[in-house]
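Homework help board

Subject: predicted structure for assignment chain

Our instructor gave us this sequence and asked us to write out the predicted structure in token form, then describe one feature. I got the tokens but I'm not sure how to describe them. Can anyone check?
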Amino acid sequence: MSGCVSDSIFKAAFKRTALHYIDLLELPDLPRNRAVNTVSTDSAACINNRMLQSFAADLTEQQKSDVLNSTLLAQLAADKAYPKDASGRYDVKGWYNKFSEVLLNLGWVTQSTAFWQYKIHGKSFSVDRAILEIINGLLQNNALFLAQATINALKNLPETDNKLTIFKFNTCSDQMGNISLGVCTQKNSLVEYNFAALYLDTKKQFKQILFIDFSTSDFKLFAGTNTITLNSDVYSLVREQVAKKLQDRVAAYMAGLDI
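My token output:
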């Protein structure tokens, strides 16, 4: 009985604190003239602002929706807290710290994403190959296949596809790029999200972060990995508030991918 009382007290306290936190979060204005996309929890992969996210087959539609909404809210809050300057630069490490802070207040167990300078062998590199190489150390078997299939699905989109336009806009500025690739699986009734993140820092301008070769003399590449978990039972206490906070932004920042 005492355990039930304790759990009830915890949930009530968490809900009060989390709802207040969400209410105070500042988000960017909804982009003007942004195309509206159909986002379905049937999709096995999704473009979600700066993130490419894929989902194991045993995740429920509700779990997928919880991941997509909560991580979008965290990204947008980070966008607002760390805006780009006139040259398109911003504090990417600070951005990921804010991202983790928001998720922690929504029921995720998370730590900040630690970055290191990625060593590139040779005179050129491609970000898509680099991020797959990094995530290869995090994932195995079907999860790794999902990550690779998600990259391929994006690569196979026509150049004029609105999904690719959204992805380019969200992941690139004139002199910086920020992208992550991850897979959500179910583990002990929790959602486990493993992702790899990369960001580019350069003095040259570019409009596309994936599927093109960069010269190693022109860019610095930084990499980070993280494993975070979501308790859907705890998140259910704030689910409606998160959706209300996002309003119409889901359709403006997300798009499903066929893999």
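Reply (TA_rk): Your tokens look well-formed. For the description, you could write something like this. The chain has a mean pLDDT of 89. That's the kind of observation they're looking for.
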